[in-house]
Amino acid sequence: xxxxxxxxxxxxxxxxxxxxxxxxxxxxxxxxxxxxxxxxxxxxxxxxxxxxxxxxxxxxxxxxxxxxxxxxxxxxxxxxxxxxxxxxxxxxxxxxxxxxxxxxxxxxxxxxxxxxxxxxxxxxxxxxxxxxxxxxxxxxxxxxxxxxxxxxxxxxxxxxxxxxxxxxxxxxxxxxxxxxxxxxxxxxxxxxxxxxxxxxxxxxxxxxxxxxxxxxxxxxxxxxxxxxxxxxxxxxxxxxxxxxxxxxxxxxxxxxxxxxxxxxxxxxxxxxxxxxxxxxxxxxxxxxxxxxxxxxxxxxxxxxxxxxxxxxxxxxxxxxxxxxxxxxxxxxxxxxxxxxxxxxxxxxxxxxxxxxxxxxxxxxxxxxxxxxxxxxxxxxxxxxxxxxxxxxxxxxxxxxxxxxxxxxxxxxxxxxxxxxxxxxxxxxxxxxxxxxx
Length: 437
Prior knowledge:
The chain has about 425 residues and is an alpha+beta fold. The protein is about 55% helix and about 10% strand. The chain folds into two domains: about 65-145 and about 295-405, MetI-like (MetI-like fold, Orthogonal Bundle), CATH 1.10.3720; about 165-285, no CATH class. The protein has helices at about 1-45, 60-65, 65-100, 105-110, 120-130, 140-150, 300-325, 330-335, 340-355, 355-370, 375-380, 385-390, 390-400, 405-435; strands spanning about 165-170, 175, 185-190, 215-220, 245-250, 255-260, 265-270, 275-280. The protein is elongated and about 130 Å long. The two termini are about 40 Å apart. The mean pLDDT is about 90.
């Protein structure tokens, strides 16, 4: 009986040796590319900038003292909370809604397409999208368009009275006549400072004011003759009207009449304006709305998170869609037959059945955002990179920047590893639990 036992033991030993031979290359690569860098980073984090002096935990204490690194920690926490949950929620919504439309496949393709773009390319795209100039940045072009629909900006933000003008500055950015006006008089209201190409469409050559009995008339125009010449405070033949300028007649602090300049700059007020001062209200000179400073210190982190969600919502949608395809349809139909509406079916049946898939997506994205680097580096301008800073970017700046400190950089790398390990352990436990089912 001993011979079979010996042969079985030899066979088992031979199989172990064969398995070890096949695993050896992978173990060597794992040790060289994963274990050794982690061990060396831990070792290097205990030394100073030069690597010659042992400093113990001083680098880890510096992480807590350094304001820039604390900002990076706070921003990383914001990323972990917002980016994965937003991308997963959008992926869930897209997966559920596109299941019921004919063109759902085409929509999924469009949503997933950003995944084919590198982070660098996406960063360049969104750096342009968030440009402050509405003529270049799509986000501000849309925002300014919506704003101007409800609060149109003036065409004359730089207009002002010229030398010896009958107009003087009034409180609040308005201009008004020096003296009260009388019915039957014609009042010139000259302004300068408006660029010729900024004049409203349909503007014509200004017409000199003509007096009308019982009324106050006048002309608002650009008191400037191209090429020189012309007389101050007089409507010359080639000078342009300021069409659309609003004029108010103010008496005893109260507006008694209003008018708007026509395409030739002329306006007419009723006899109510007799004895009043004419005022050009500040709304005529409101600066054009420049939009939102998406890449300013306040909004830069949410803006970069938006770019990340644009890229990764498609990834979440595809995984959730695959999980949704395996949900038993009879359960959904049974719930509808029992009187559940679509929201109740979604909340009480679809989401609970998709919980394992949602967990996979969420954990994957959490690990992914922990090491986010390139989007922040490319999108955030240099002036606000400290405000948009995250741990992975701070690791790069500390280790390889102009004032490189690889001891502190290694400590940041170890901290990043420590933060990722609990998420990885949770993922491993979840996968083992799923395998036992």
